[in-house]
Design brief:
The protein is α/β, with parallel strands linked by helices and about 325 residues long. The chain has 11 helices and 10 strands. The strands form 2 sheets. The chain has an 8-stranded parallel beta sheet. Helix 3 packs parallel to helix 4 and helix 5 runs parallel beside helix 6. The longest helix has 17 residues.
């Protein structure tokens, strides 16, 4: 009997250690201006954002189950982001096969117990409200039952006013999702490349489980953007960093480790989730991989750029629970 008891205890400990992020945290929601888990505890997810899914851009090859599994099991990612290109060349509005790429990532995320952002990756989404509503209605019907799924209905508005442009668009798409999926988290892009979170916070959307996108690139966006984030948080806006980079905003330059660390400290302080740009081997500093790297992993140090090495380091030391 003693041997059996020891075995059961050891098995139980192994089971706890092997629990996936979704098993631990379950369905996400917003309470008291924070994203919390099924237990009402603040949660901070972290992982990579895939590059634009557009056909012919040569980064769509990373949209596969192997890549998601490697991030989940070897990099300790709790989140991945499927950035479905919409209106640029080869995007969803021209080539519907982009949807299948997103679904491959979502299915793999569910299989590996991590969260996944379904991102309508556009700078002009307000021009396509009907198409966005139809797409997210389909995603809600297919995946709304899964606690893994987060809807990001507008990536980065550029020169679009919040109250007269982004907000009406968001209300339409949110209504389409909520008609099918009443609960899963929805993230809304904010003006000026998802930086003016304070502007959105002054005229908030109404509804359950809504958060606002904050994007930054460490070598470009520094304390002034953190000040804007502070203002939004003080106004009661739940924030979610659906995209960030350790380099310059144009994807170039070099990794700014010092400013990246300041941002990591800020995210930890406020228990904010994050997805780093980008799962790509395009020859630019923001890419995680060197040109020609495997599309599925596993990846060695030689496969990684400085940005990739930094993200792997962050993820392997990241905890989804907050103090």
């Amino acid at each position: 009997m003693k041997k059996i008891a020891i075995f059961l205890v050891a098995s139980g400990l192994a089971s706890i250690a092997a629990a996936t992020p979704v098993q631990v945290h379950g369905a996400l929601k917003v309470e008291d201006a924070r994203v919390v888990d099924q237990h009402g505890k603040p949660v901070a997810l972290a992982g990579p954002s895939f590059f634009w899914s557009n056909s012919g851009w040569r980064q769509e090859r990373f949209y596969n189950a192997g890549a998601v599994k490697t991030f989940a099991t070897e990099w300790n990612a709790s989140l991945v982001r499927a950035a479905m290109g919409v209106d640029e060349g080869g995007g969803f509005l021209q080539d519907a096969s982009n949807k299948a790429r997103v679904e491959a990532v979502v299915d793999a995320a569910i299989a590996n117990g991590v969260y996944v952002i379904i991102d309508w990756h556009s700078h002009h989404a307000e021009r396509y409200p009907e198409q966005a509503a139809a797409f997210f209605s389909e995603m809600a019907r297919k995946y709304g039952h899964a606690p893994n799924v987060i809807y990001e209905i507008y990536n980065e508005p550029v020169d679009v006013a919040w109250s007269s442009g982004i907000k009406p668009y968001a209300e339409k798409v949110i209504a389409a999702i909520r008609a099918i999926d009443p609960d899963n988290l929805i993230v809304i892009g904010t003006p000026k490349w998802s930086q003016d979170v304070d502007v959105a916070a002054r005229d908030p959307l109404r509804g359950r489980n809504l958060a606002y996108a904050l994007h930054f690139y460490a070598a470009t966006h520094k304390q002034p953007l953190r000040d804007k984030a502070d203002a939004a948080i003080k106004l009661g806006a739940p924030l979610f960093v659906t995209e960030w980079g350790s380099v310059s905003a144009d994807g170039g330059g070099v990794v700014d480790r010092e400013e990246s660390q300041r941002w990591q400290d800020y995210l930890r302080k406020h228990c904010l989730s994050q997805a780093q740009w980008a799962v790509s081997d395009k020859k630019e500093a923001a890419s995680l991989f060197q040109p020609g790297a495997s599309s599925t992993g596993p990846w060695t140090d030689a496969d990684l750029t400085a940005s990739g090495k930094l993200l792997r380091e962050i993820l392997r030391n990241w905890s989804t629970t907050c103090r």
